[in-house]
Specification:
The chain is of the alpha+beta class. Helices cover about 45% and strands about 15% of the residues. It is globular and about 60 Å long. The protein has two domains: about 140 residues, Jelly Rolls (Sandwich); about 120 residues, Arc Repressor Mutant, subunit A (Orthogonal Bundle). The two termini are about 40 Å apart.
């Protein structure tokens, strides 16, 4: 964990001939090897392996005002395969798997940081827990795969689209920066813009609006924040712009939504 949020490298954590499971509670990063790349996004789990011999591998983290909160589990591939068999065919991309966090992942992070057993049993408990987490991600049942986004992304969407929309979801309070977004996912800005529209039927701006409003609705339903405070939390500096966007997505104003959800008056 790095509360400073400064950009930097973490290649010293990456070991050759190992399987790496990155539980990312906050911040963004990147792993690159042999011409492929895996973008580490907020509240996602990444799984990748490294060759046994020397090779080009870099691991960096992007500057993040909120700090970085990566939990990395490193297990020799040989040890993993002694339990599960060959893991190579199970990886979905050249550099591995990226999934949005599930409730199981959140529970795993809590347990790994604070083992619920006495010290005498910790070694056996950690071994069992790591095997459990690896099994869940290597052998997850297809019907239990969560939808990666609340937006309508086609099941065969290009990885650039998936990563771009996940980055948007983690940057709701920031204006859309197409150049930075394209750079972070590894393609040209016009191509990314065209690809998102082509595969989802919506522009990046419309996706950002939908994600902001969805988060705002969640906050209005589950917190004591008022409409103005929620608008600021999801990146709207103008209450009128927020109300218009909310109405376009939900068919009602934020105040009407809040009254319906909580049965209270909004000042």
């Amino acid at each position: 964990m790095d509360p400073s949020g400064a950009a930097g490298g973490w290649a010293d954590v990456v070991k050759t001939g190992c399987l790496h499971l990155v539980l990312n509670g906050g911040g963004e990063g990147l792993v690159m090897a042999s011409g492929t790349r895996l973008t580490l996004l907020p509240r996602t789990t990444a799984l990748f392996s490294t060759p046994a011999g020397p090779g080009m591998m870099s691991a960096t983290r992007f500057a993040c005002p909120g700090g970085h909160d990566f939990l990395v589990l490193v297990v020799p591939v040989e040890s993993v395969e002694s339990v599960f068999g060959p893991v190579g065919p199970l990886m979905r991309r050249d550099l591995g798997i990226l999934r949005r966090w599930s409730e199981r992942d959140e529970e795993a992070v809590r347990d790994l940081c604070r083992p619920p057993v006495q010290p005498a049993a910790e070694k056996a408990w950690f071994l069992a827990k790591v095997l459990e987490v690896l099994a869940l991600h290597l052998f997850r049942r297809p019907q239990e795969e969560p939808r990666f986004f609340c937006t309508m992304v086609k099941s065969n969407a290009h990885r650039y689209v998936r990563e771009a929309l996940t980055l948007l979801e983690g940057r709701l309070e920031q204006p859309l920066d197409l150049v930075r977004l394209a750079q972070d996912v590894g393609c040209a800005p016009p191509y990314l813009s065209r690809l998102v529209k082509q595969e989802t039927g919506k522009t990046l701006l419309l996706h950002l609006r939908a994600l902001r409003v969805e988060k705002a609705a969640e906050m209005l339903s589950g917190s004591d924040l008022n409409v103005t405070e929620v608008a600021l939390e999801v990146g709207y500096q103008s209450l009128s712009h927020f109300s218009k966007a909310f109405a376009q997505e939900k068919g009602m104003t934020p105040s009407q939504f809040l009254k319906r959800q909580k049965g209270v008056k909004v000042a």
